[in-house]
Amino acid sequence: MKKWTNIAIAGSILSSITLSSIPLHAADAKEKPNQMDKPQYQIDAKLDQNQHSIQASETVSFKNKYTQNLNDLVFHLYPDSYNKLETMSNMHAKPSTPEMLAEIKKRYPNITEKDFLGDIEIKSVTIQGKKVSYTQDKQVLKIQLSTPIQPNQRVDVKIDFTVKIPFGFQRMNHRDGFYALTKWYPILSMYDPKAQKWDEKPYHPDGESDYSDFSDYKMKLTVPKEMTVAATGTETETIQQNEKIVQVDAPNVREFVFFASPHYTKETRKIAGITVSSYYDKRNPQSKEIALNGLKDVEKAIPFFNQKVGQYAYPEFDIMETRVGGVDMEYPTIIQMGEYSNEGANMSLVHELAHQWFYGMIGNNPYNDPALDESFTTFADMYFNEYDTKGKYGFKTHLSNSKQAIKEMPGAINRPLDQYPSTSDYSQYVYEKGYIALIDLYYKVGEKKFDQIMKTYFAQNKFTNATFAHFFDAVNKVAGKEVRDYMEKAFTKPDYHPTHLLQPKKESEQEAK
């Protein structure tokens, strides 16, 4: 996710209404010995364009890889965060004021307040073919087990459900014939064997708190035949009368999304052995221009991240123009951009691409460690700018713009989401101060060692959910304990003020000359 700007989201959405008249390498293709320990999702879904809904059934083959019996199972139901405005993401536009609703109605006069709401309804749950009791509450599906799941035992959990897709500007939405289905299905929660309980945190409106394991996905999706579909993974299509059947295969990813519209067309490039496609609104000439400009950046950025961090591990990467309003979003092998209505539409493209490394291939718990993906991704974007502009718009520019964060922000950069006093505090620390610590590390150890730290961190934690302890371990292995301890204090303790990064004024003026 790219940080929202200082412009109010309300303003940005009203502006968008007015203006609208992101080869599988041989080493990665080999399955690891514990491949079958991952959850296996089989999803059969149908998009109803008239009702703006999804009728679906999923079967999750789950193995108890812990040393203790499991007495229940928990799935996240993130679509229930759309039940009411208060639980929707504050990072995306919503009709939270009468003025905003009135402005939206100027363009969409038939839309009601209920149309902005969405949810997921669980119809039935079976385990090994037998119906089981369950509860659906607070964005959680909890399944009580009459017979515990033993260690190393595998069970098949089948869930039938319906999703109501909200109209609007949130990241799951429909608008103007575009559909964005993100975090739309029951997602198996993460189990904490020490606490002996499942994660039941609802989606946090002020940040990202969705947390899931690497899994294998297969989906059969039925849509109207005129729809173009792009999804996490790779797609194959067949036409049956008036319907299109899309088969999707997405191994070893943290979550699964898809986008659909009859208005999509695409431009495709082969970049570093990866099929990169940019999907855009074929009715809008400006969309094509913006899509092509974005591909130019991706052509340079993918090889850069491959070299500096590690090889992109999937055969495809897709960039989607969508109708999200607010911040752009990242998902495995695919990113969700906003409407291509102005020249700044690609501003966060490299940031979202970098998330394929920091979030996609190295996972984390964004509730406990929000800086581990967002601060790292923000730095990666700046690192690319440093390289791409030969230092003209790189680290020094960003440090100069971050004097307040360096001198005055006293709190710890990384902390659980609920420990930031406000949305703006979360934004400032994770996006505006977190990258400073990584620039500090870069200058402290030099480019060669810094790159080796990132490569070590990537190699040791690829396809797993990492913590800051894993990153500090990589720092220790490459740069030693003293640097490791310094970085731990920088990210996790208060009063990190690296004023040594600010050049004296006279020196800066001489460089400018």
Automatic annotation (TrEMBL):
Q: How is the cofactor bound?
A: Binds 1 zinc ion per subunit.
Q: Does the keyword Metal-binding apply?
A: yes
CDD domains recorded = M1_APN_like (cd09604)
- Identify the stretch annotated as signal peptide in this record: 1-26
Domain annotation Peptidase M1 membrane alanine aminopeptidase: ranges: 347-488
**GO MF annotations in UniProt:** metallopeptidase activity; zinc ion binding
Pfam family name, one: Peptidase_M1
Q: Which InterPro entries match?
A: Aminopeptidase_N-like_N_sf, M1_LTA4H, Peptidase_M1_dom, Peptidase_M4/M1_CTD_sf
Q: Which UniProt keywords apply?
A: Metal-binding, Signal, Zinc
**Which residues are Zn(2+)-binding?**
351, 355, 374
Cofactor(s) needed by this chain = Zn(2+)
Transmembrane portions of the chain:
none
**Taxonomically, which superkingdom?**
Bacteria
Identify which residues the record assigns to the active site. Answer: 352 (proton acceptor), 431 (proton donor)
Query: Record's PANTHER family?
Result: LEUKOTRIENE A-4 HYDROLASE
Protein name in the entry: Peptidase M1 membrane alanine aminopeptidase domain-containing protein
> What is the native source organism of this protein?
Croceifilum oryzae
Task: Cite the source lineage.
Answer: Bacteria, Bacillati, Bacillota, Bacilli, Bacillales
